[in-house]
Amino acid sequence: MQQKLSIAIQTLYSTRKDNPHAIRMMIRMCDPIERCVLCSAVDMTMQRYPYFCVELRKKDGRYVFAQNTRPVVISDTLEGTQLNSEGSNYHMIAFSAEDDWIVLDVFHGLTDGIGAYEVIRTLLYYYCSQRYDVKLSREGIRLAGDEISVEEWDDPVDALSGQPAEMQTQMSPALVLTGYPGLLNDHKKTVHSIALSEAEFMSFNSEHKGSPGTMTALLLSRAIAKLHPEAAAPIRIIVCVNQRKALRAPLAHQSLVGFSALEYDRQLRSLPIGQQVTEFRRRVFEQSGDEAIMSSVNAAASFVGMLTNMKTDEERLEAMSAADEMLNGTMTAVISYVGKAGFGDAEKYIRDFRTWTRCPDKGIIVEISAVNGRFIMDIIQPFSDPVYVNGFLQQLEENGVAYEHLGVRELTLPNIKLPWSK
Prior knowledge:
By secondary structure, the protein is α+β, with helices and mostly antiparallel strands. The chain has helices at 8-14, 35-48, 113-131, 150-153, 198-207, 212-227, 244-247, 266-269, 273-287, 290-309, 313-328, 387-398; strands spanning 3-4, 22-29, 54-59, 62-67, 74-75, 93-98, 101-107, 190-197, 236-242, 257-263, 333-337, 350-357, 364-371, 374-381, 404-410. The chain has a seven-stranded mixed β-sheet with strand order 10-9-11-13-14-8-15. It has a five-stranded mixed β-sheet with strand order 5-6-7-2-12, with helices on one face. A hairpin with a 2-residue loop joins strand 13 and strand 14. The protein is globular and about 60 Å long.
């Protein structure tokens, strides 16, 4: 079954070899990985997700996702394999395992964090059931043999084709973190991983009427403001928003991510933290209503139509490069949190969990995971200097939030073989 790329066309034309649009989710189990069990689990898992068993093909001058019946690859090293290449059997999804780690790599144009979590729920169900010889609850977990509804298959954005799009208000340039005086901008992409007790952080949020995403956005804003007290450009944090509710497509597997823009303005800075986070939540609510989301989705669909109508890959690459440059200039940082992982009975077998994704060119992105009683924040940045991470940790300390710094690593994501590259 063939699938149009739709919104994924933007992701395809903005991915680069040095900064691929990929999601890497890493699961550290309590025990070493049994390869034969993992192979069986991956096989059963991919039977449940035929819309992820695809390869990129060109048909009538346009790229599509076409059915790929080759086996999904499991590498023996956490470096993984290049997606859309011979090494991955031309799949846009792949797995790897080493010691006690299992890794899922997937092209971000194929799905988003919500879709990737579904795959991991299924994988862990099959793997842990066999590895530990236990009967796990299947509640909330998709399994092979399920009837796959058209709501899972269909791209809700396709139905918007041809609808008029309102002009989007262009945001002003935001504070650029790489412009911090004295910053060691060595272009070494790094990830600092921070763990918080889920119960304690939720208690802190409840005390101040916050939520994990908005509170993280606020604490990061406060840290940045302390480092840039006289900055003229606004500190603007982008909070990712799930578009499925507004699209009336809760089961859709595609990458359906919008955003709310939160500015830490001068008026807000004078308020106590409880009022600050309340205002941030109000702004997120205002920007994530159905009307606001549908307006941005229609604008994106209109842009996709423009890209599709271009005659060459070179034109599309140039258009996406310009769009990315403009977008990068309007955000200081990004917060991504899709909610509790909900891996069910398998969670007790998980020691650690990480979510890595593409690094912004000029700012940072914080990927938040909630697994097995902990929040894990992966702070991804385009330089090795820890100045902003240290500022964020100081905010946690000042507000009585205990944390564990799990370490810093180089950001590694799977390359994606692009059809126009040699």
